[in-house]
Amino acid sequence: MEIIVVPDPESVGDVAAERIAELVRRKPDAVLGVATGSSPVPTYRSLEQRVRNGLDVSGVSAFALDEYVGLSEGHPQSYAEVVRREVTERLGLDPERVHVPKGHAVDVPTACEEYEEAIRAAGGVDLQILGIGSNGHIGFNEPSSSLAGRTRVKTLTPTTRRDNARFFDDDLSQVPTHCITQGIGTILDSGLALLVASGEGKAEAVAAMAEGPVGAFCPASALQLHRRSVVVVDEAAASLL
Ligand code: GLP
């Protein structure tokens, strides 16, 4: 695990965006795994600058990590919409090449299998962008998730629902109880895992991920088993390392 500590969230975004840009220059049809949440936003903004400066992303595909189950199609906080706003539109990706698990599907388990199949058919994820939850989750793989899991339905923990209530007018009753998430097994198959984190609130999770034992109590610790993982954190998130 390569750990890069930089002064602030903007620098986290710049370093992470440069790693992504390097890949796209080398492999114009790269497959990116994209995360939602606030952590990767500076990365997407910095990447947007590189696209404005001529980085060609017309051949890039993207697969989102996760999605809420039960939100209506087009709900502003569904990850399909967040990815459309923050990734597809910002970077000018071809919408046909951007995939998000179908949390509104009638048959969600089949939608999960089809999602895994679509990732395989695209040749796998070259670079997976990740944030980390304050409880150490990646995607929506909450503590106690199998370290070998694939894309499937999961129950959200009370901690994560509370953390994410800020996106739902601070009204816990509006936060979905279930989600679809790529599994840790899916994430470990990516060519490179690029995790970004900033702020004091992530310091404990970052320390457990990087220096704690590998185990399901901290799903992100599985990245210690990844053949190539890069962690870019600001000084506050690195404060307990
Ligand atoms: C959410 C997402 C994760 C994200 C995490 C942290 O629940 N499913 O993919 O990494 O929480 O979010 P944030 O970056 O806003 O702190």
Automatic annotation (TrEMBL):
Keywords: Allosteric enzyme, Carbohydrate metabolism, Hydrolase. One of its GO terms (molecular function) is identical protein binding. It catalyses: alpha-D-glucosamine 6-phosphate + H2O = beta-D-fructose 6-phosphate + NH4(+). The active site is at D66 (proton acceptor), N135 (for ring-opening step), H137 (proton acceptor), E142 (for ring-opening step). The keyword Ribonucleoprotein does not apply. The record marks S145, R152, K154, T155 as: Part of the allosteric site. The keyword Hydrolase applies. One of its GO terms (biological process) is carbohydrate metabolic process. Its EC number is 3.5.99.6. It holds the Pfam family Glucosamine_iso. InterPro entries: Glc/Gal-6P_isomerase (IPR006148), Glucosamine6P_isomerase (IPR004547), Glucosamine6P_isomerase_CS (IPR018321), NagB/RpiA_transferase-like (IPR037171). It comes from the Bacteria. CDD domains: GlcN6P_deaminase (cd01399). One of its GO terms (cellular component) is cytoplasm. Pathway: Amino-sugar metabolism; N-acetylneuraminate degradation; D-fructose 6-phosphate from N-acetylneuraminate: step 5/5. Residues 12-228 form the Glucosamine/galactosamine-6-phosphate isomerase domain. Allosterically activated by N-acetylglucosamine 6-phosphate (GlcNAc6P). It is an enzyme of class 3 (hydrolase). NCBIfam families: nagB (TIGR00502), PRK00443.1-4 (NF001684). Belongs to the glucosamine/galactosamine-6-phosphate isomerase family. NagB subfamily. Catalyzes the reversible isomerization-deamination of glucosamine 6-phosphate (GlcN6P) to form fructose 6-phosphate (Fru6P) and ammonium ion. This is Glucosamine-6-phosphate deaminase.
